[in-house]
Design a protein that fits this description.
Elements: E1 5-9, H1 10-23, E2 28-32, H2 34-39, H3 42-48, E3 54-57, H4 60-68, E4 74-77, H5 85-93, E5 96-99, H6 102-111, E6 117-122, H7 134-146, E7 150-156, H8 169-176, E8 185-189, H9 191-196, E9 204-205, E10 231-243, E11 248-249, E12 255-256, E13 261-266, E14 283-286, E15 289-294, E16 302-305, E17 317-321, H10 327-333, H11 338-348, E18 353-356
Parallel strand pairs: 1-18, 2-3, 2-9, 3-4, 4-5, 5-6, 6-7, 7-8, 8-9
Antiparallel strand pairs: 1-10, 10-13, 10-17, 11-12, 13-16, 14-15, 14-17, 15-16
Helix pairs in contact: 10-11
The structure holds pyridoxal-5'-phosphate (PLP).
Length: 358
């Protein structure tokens, strides 16, 4: 069997949840578990994050799975109902939904659910992705308040630049100006806002990436915020090559040996979710020592510089990312973000996952 596997550390999850609570001690935590918990496994992540007050997911089937596994927390569908039949199931199972479009209110009125539904009313304050315009919120709130099918209402928005230079000021001002907003619970902060903007914490916070131990800021790592990496991606060396000076390794011959050197061939490639755009020089660990990739990442393999590891050979252990090499560092080298790398591993559907409890 191929050695590549992803291991998940439950203790890191609980530690990261504690970090969220220390940043925003007065807010309830709605842990974001979309995309199979950012590639970490929905149910295992929920178990490790059991102290959260709520879980949010994308699809109804994910929410049902959580209920079937006995989770009693608030559950929220982040994009709400896609089809009217979903209203009925949410009502029966006590699953809450974002309402971001008038059609979703029509669905509720058509279905007339027996038990009224908890909703998060989403306001578009400048992200321009989902949500009602602030000027329309007053009227929508009246409709929802009068509806016998709606239970509790939380008002939410989402920031486009909490991790960037622009920041949250204009969106937050727009949100705070909504008429009558103070009587509702509010939910606006993603990880970047939890870390950087305490004025956004309100009654709920919605952390995603920080729970997984990675940084929401592309110029920082999880370490900078005392977050612990939950996923370790490990494999082994399956072959060794010796390159003479000026010989190359891999497709396109993009790496040429500056001197005679040994190169390890690692069982991990872009089909597993490792970024193809990771250039020569991307850090990784062999036998616990930090070294770097060389050459272009192949579909099932990549190449590592063993110049500083004379004892490494076939079977030597490789950490692609984890505690020694942070996913944030691999992401930065590859011009992407930790989010994408973490999700890609489980999306590839070919990396076995292993859970370490305690
Ligand atoms: C994904 C998501 C979050 C979490 O964002 P992070 O940057 O991972 O903390 C919060 N809210 C919404 C609506 C999201 O889609």
């Amino acid at each position: 069997m191929r050695a590549l596997k992803a291991s998940f550390h439950s203790a890191a999850f609980s530690s990261n949840l504690k970090r969220v609570k220390s940043y925003s001690p007065n807010s309830k935590v709605m842990a974001v578990l979309k995309a199979n918990a950012y590639g970490h496994g929905l149910i295992e992540a929920a178990r490790a994050l059991n102290d959260a007050d709520g879980f949010s997911v994308l699809t109804l089937s994910e929410a049902i799975e959580l209920r079937e596994h006995g989770f009693t927390q608030h559950l929220l569908l982040l994009e709400g109902f896609f089809k009217p039949y979903e209203v009925k199931i949410c009502s029966l199972m006590g699953i809450g939904a974002v309402i971001h479009h008038a059609q979703q209110i029509d669905y509720i009125n058509q279905v007339k659910p027996v038990k009224p539904i908890d909703v998060h009313l989403k306001v578009n304050t400048g992200m321009n992705r989902l949500g009602f315009m602030p000027k329309d919120v007053d009227l929508i709130l009246k409709q929802l308040e009068e509806s016998p099918y709606i239970n509790k209402i939380v008002i939410m928005t989402h920031f486009s630049d909490a991790d960037g230079e622009k920041g949250v000021a204009s969106q937050l001002a727009c949100f705070n100006e909504i008429k009558g907003i103070d009587i509702y619970e509010r939910s606006v902060a993603n990880s970047a806002a939890i870390i950087k903007y305490p004025e956004t914490h309100f009654e709920w916070v919605r952390p995603g990436i920080m729970l997984y131990g990675a940084s929401p800021f592309d110029d920082k790592t999880g370490n900078d915020f005392q977050l612990k990496p939950v996923m370790s991606l490990r494999s082994e060396i399956i072959a060794i090559q010796t390159l003479e000076e000026s010989q190359s390794v891999g497709y396109g011959s993009v790496f040429t040996a500056p001197h005679k050197m040994t190169v390890g061939i690692v069982a991990c490639g872009y089909a597993d979710g490792y970024p193809r755009h990771a250039p020569s020089g991307t850090p990784l660990m062999v036998d616990g020592v930090i070294t770097q990739t060389v050459g272009r990442v192949s579909m099932d393999m990549l190449y590592v510089d063993l110049s500083s590891l004379p004892n490494a050979g076939v079977g030597s252990s490789v950490e692609l990312w984890g505690k020694g090499v942070l996913v944030d560092e691999v992401a930065r080298q590859s011009h992407t973000v930790g989010y994408e790398l973490l999700c890609a591993i489980s999306a590839s559907n070919r990396v076995p996952m292993e859970y370490q409890h305690g």
